[in-house]
C-alpha cells in the first residue's frame, strides 16, 4: 500500500527516532509499504519519519542512480544492486574530504540544493531479520545512507544549508508546509487532519 509522505513543516520530521525491536507490530508489512511508497515516488531512500513514524528505520535503493551515464560501469553495477533496510542504525564514523552533491527530498518536493558530506562512512545497523551488521560505504551509496540517517536523527538536508540559502528557499518551504505544491505522489501536509 502506498502511504502518504509527510511534508516539510510536520513536527515528526524534527524528532529523533526511537529504536525498535523485532516484535514491532506488522514490521514486514510496514517495510513492503515503505518500498512501494518509495518506488511510487521515484525515490532512492525513505525514512520512517517521512511516513509519520518517529522510529529508527529507513530503506535505500540506489538503482535509479545506476542509469547516470557519467558513472563508470563498475559504479553503475554497484548502484544497480544496492537495496537495503536499515533498522536502529548508528553511523560510527564519517571520514574523508567533504564533497558536494545536489540533494532533494520526497518530503521537500521541488527543492534541490548542494550539500557537503564526507565520502566514507561506517555504520552499524540491523537488517529486516534483526541481524546486526557493521559495514563501510562510500560515494553515492554513503551519501544516500547519510541523507536517510539524518531523517532518523530529526535532521533535514535543508538544515545543512547556509543562512543565505535558507533565506532564499524560505518561501518555497512555507508553501510546501501549507500544501501549496503539486506533486505526483501522495503527501500529508502539516495542516491536514489525520484521517481516522
TrEMBL record:
Protein's UniProt keywords contain Protein biosynthesis: yes
GO molecular function terms noted in the UniProt entry: metal ion binding; peptide deformylase activity
Record: residues binding Fe cation: 105, 147, 151
Pfam families linked: Pep_deformylase (PF01327)
Superkingdom as given in the UniProt entry: Bacteria
Cofactor names: Fe(2+)
Record note on cofactor: Binds 1 Fe(2+) ion.
Biological process (GO), any one: translation
Keyword Protein biosynthesis: yes
CDD domains in UniProt: Pep_deformylase
Keywords: Hydrolase, Iron, Metal-binding, Protein biosynthesis
Record's catalysed reaction(s): N-terminal N-formyl-L-methionyl-[peptide] + H2O = N-terminal L-methionyl-[peptide] + formate
Assigned EC number: 3.5.1.88
Active-site feature positions: 148
Family affiliation: Belongs to the polypeptide deformylase family.
Function text: Removes the formyl group from the N-terminal Met of newly synthesized proteins. Requires at least a dipeptide for an efficient rate of reaction. N-terminal L-methionine is a prerequisite for activity but the enzyme has broad specificity at other positions.
Protein name: Peptide deformylase
Gene: def
